[in-house]
Amino acid sequence: MVALKSTNCLVCAVDLGGTNLRAATVDRDGHIHQRARFPTPQTTDPQEIVSAIAAAVAECAKQAAGQIRYVSVVVPGSVQPQSGLTVNAPNVPAIVGFALKEALESRLEQPVLIENDANAAAVGEMWFGAGRGLKTIVCFTLGTGVGSGVILNGEIWRGIDGTGGEIGHTSVDPCGGVQCKCGNTGCLEVYASATGLVRIARELLPLHPQSALQEIAAADLSAKAIAHAAQHGDACALAAFETMATRLGIGVANIVNALNPEAIVIAGGVSAAFDLFAPRVRAEVMRRAFPVPAQRCRIVKAECGDDAGLVGAARLAFDAQESATPA
């Protein structure tokens, strides 16, 4: 990534998650200013998603004094950045096959960039986070689902159809019988996501009648609550993280062998519990991957936190502006 020219313009970056929609204005130094947060509409109508994104942008624009020059939206699925078409998005199915870029540009009357959320998080971590100074990383975003962004020699790897890097939907337990929203069984996403961790804990609860998690209503059980219990030595919670980490380790080991990256960066909400699962992930990688790439590859926690996707989305928009501006 080249150095950016300094100006006062802002990008409104929008992170469309399966559960929440977050937006922020970001300047060329990577500093975040205004923020907005809304629940993601649980709908089959893509226009409701468009309206929610437009509302978030408007909320940020109220405080930005007209400085927003570009809108950059990241989505939890595969996209074709040029056309803005969403190829797949298991956790936001309303936008699959929908020309989100065109619809937003018509609504907002501003240029809009569409990108995969994990790709943006990887870019954010290479700009200001755990990937600084590196050229080849894989960034996993562990949230409602499992996203992944692959950067090879400084460039996002998209694949021929724009669907490259969907590691969350590789099979780590195809005979396990747990079906993913994508239709496959045994995807990494059904084990290493926040929703997967909750499912695992619920399945283990009958084996742990003394667990503190028994006191939480089934509907209220969350990854955060499981992490809190695990930090206090709860056997059920620790077992849930053990299962989750084993499957994540299998997925990471496959990537280490296939791509030989310099680092695996773990981002997303579940990364807050990094210390609970990282040792087992590392152990699985050392056990399953070839020794040389396994020893070379660092497994690190993202440094930009939940803002990785927002910062990366802004950087991609600024890069797009730079490339479109005559020298």
Describe the structure.
This protein is α/β, with parallel strands linked by helices and 327 residues long. It has two domains: 10-116 and 306-324, 2-Layer Sandwich (Nucleotidyltransferase, domain 5), CATH 3.30.420.40; 130-302, ATPase, nucleotide binding domain (Nucleotidyltransferase, domain 5, 2-Layer Sandwich), CATH 3.30.420. It is built from ten helices and twelve strands. It has helices at residues 46-62, 100-108, 117-128, 189-192, 194-204, 223-231, 235-259, 274-288, 291-296, 308-324, and strands spanning 10-16, 20-26, 32-39, 68-75, 78-80, 85-88, 112-116, 137-142, 146-152, 155-156, 263-267, 298-301. A five-stranded mixed beta sheet has the order 3-2-1-4-7, with helices on both faces. Strands 10-9-8-11-12 form a five-stranded mixed beta sheet, sandwiched between helices. The protein is globular. The mean pLDDT is 92.
Class derived from helix and strand content: alpha/beta
Radius of gyration: 20 Å
CATH topology of the largest domain: Nucleotidyltransferase, domain 5
Text of the CATH class of the largest domain:
Alpha Beta
Give the ordered list of helices and strands: EEEHEEEHEHEEEHHHHEHHEH
In whole angstroms, how far apart are the ends? 17 Å
User: What is the beta-strand fraction?
Assistant: 15-25%
Trace the largest sheet across and list its strands.
3-2-1-4-7
User: What's the tally of helices?
Assistant: 10
What's the CATH architecture of the largest domain? Answer: 2-Layer Sandwich
> Low-confidence segments, ≥5 residues, pLDDT <50?
none
Strand count, sense and barrel status of the largest sheet are: 5 strands, mixed
Gross morphology is: globular
Question: What's the CATH H-level homologous superfamily of the largest domain?
Answer: ATPase, nucleotide binding domain
